[in-house]
Amino acid sequence: MSDENDKNPENDPQLAGKIKDSARQIWLAGLGAYTKAEEDTGRFFDRLVQEGEQLENKTRGAVEKQIRSVEGRVEGVRERATGTWDRLEHLFDERVSGALRRLGIHRKEDIESLEKRIEMLEAELAVLKNASGVDEEE
């Protein structure tokens, strides 16, 4: 019976040592793989962040370029529209003034100018009357 116990793998000290060494090597390989994966993941993550920053910079530059282009076009259109609007307004003013003159209605500036001339003439007339001795109440 002792022969059978000696041949039993559970009682073989070399086999137990080999299994123990193999298990330890598997454990160490697993730890090494985990550490390597962790290092690679960190580097991979850093690389992804760097590439993301580069892409963001490229995209931002393209977007800013497009915005400047659109702003330039809008400003050009605005200037043309303002110039056109000013010309239309001036043309409208001229036509309305012409129509009012043809109807015998004078512009405010014309009436104000005539009022100033009347005031000046009245002042001159008063001076002449005072100089000739004519009473203003007559």
Q: Would you write up a description of this structure?
A:
There is one protein chain. This protein has helices at residues 2-7, 13-102, 108-132. The protein is mainly α and 138 residues long. The chain folds into 2 domains: 2-105; 106-138. It has 3 helices and no strands.
In short:
This protein has helices at 2-7, 13-102, 108-132. With 138 residues, the protein is an all-alpha fold.
Overall tally of structural domains: 2
Q: Rg from C-alpha positions?
A: 53 Å
> What is the tally of beta strands?
0
The sequence of SSEs as H and E is HHH
Keywords:
rod-shaped; 2 domains; mainly alpha; 138 residues
List the helices and strands and how they pair.
Blueprint: H1 2-7, H2 13-102, H3 108-132
